[in-house]
Design brief:
By secondary structure, this protein is an alpha+beta fold. It has one domain (about 1-280): Endonuclease/exonuclease/phosphatase (Deoxyribonuclease I, Chain A, 4-Layer Sandwich). Helix content is about 25%, strand content about 30%. The longest helix is centred in the middle third of the chain and has 22 residues, at about 125-145.
Amino acid sequence: MFTLTSLNLNGIRSASRKGLEVWLEKTRPNCMCVQELKAQATDVAGQFEVLAGLKGYFHFAEKKGYSGVGIYTRHEPSDVVMGFGSHEFDAEGRCVELRFDSPARPHAPKLSLISCYFPSGSSGEERQAAKFRFLAEFYPYLLSLKAEREYILCGDINIAHQEMDLKNWKGNKKNSGFLPEERAWMTALLRHDAAVANEAADDIQAAGGLVDVYRQLQPTATDDCYTWWSNRGQAWAKNVGWRLDYHLATPNLAALAQSEHIYKAERFSDHAPITVGYGLSL
């Protein structure tokens, strides 16, 4: 089984001090997608290029101590793609893609793993506007990529899609991460018909056709599904959480998903790692 983990680190140095590498030695995933490195290349060099035998590939933000994503893997990629062609958001280190295309198997589907960190809009109107710009740019990119390749996108999406995806959904209807426009964007991305009306934005979007892998495996899970807890108000102790971390896959890869696990026995971050086992070989 191919195991793929996703984790928002909230700082790679902090997560390392909290035992991340020891846990990786025990669990030995094939690949791990990470977000919010909060580090530059000079910080990673000599310390975090390899974790528990996994080689890392990174896309750093230009701003120091901010954002940044990476993928650690046991498998040598055929190509590494930094960013998705956005002048604004590539500078923030939001997306890295590893491609696994084998010349020995020219007729095999082209396969990619993507680590992505969606912007948060919780700090105010300016960042929420940036988040909406990101969603508008990233959606057609995902559709165009799906037309060419099979892929699994792992990351901190910063959107709780449904009411079951956060504890206090009634009190968060007007808050970033659970806004109607954000949820409608996710609905469109996960639709498989020809098009979907995005009522919140009053327009029509082509259906994204991706699969929320966790919900495929756990369609009714509520309190067990959370992957992020605020540092305020004893949210962790009371399990007042949000499901913000996803595996989003093209249908053929989603069909190979066999198991999922959200690890909560230790805390490396304010997010919990989510691991999915796929009947897949690279």
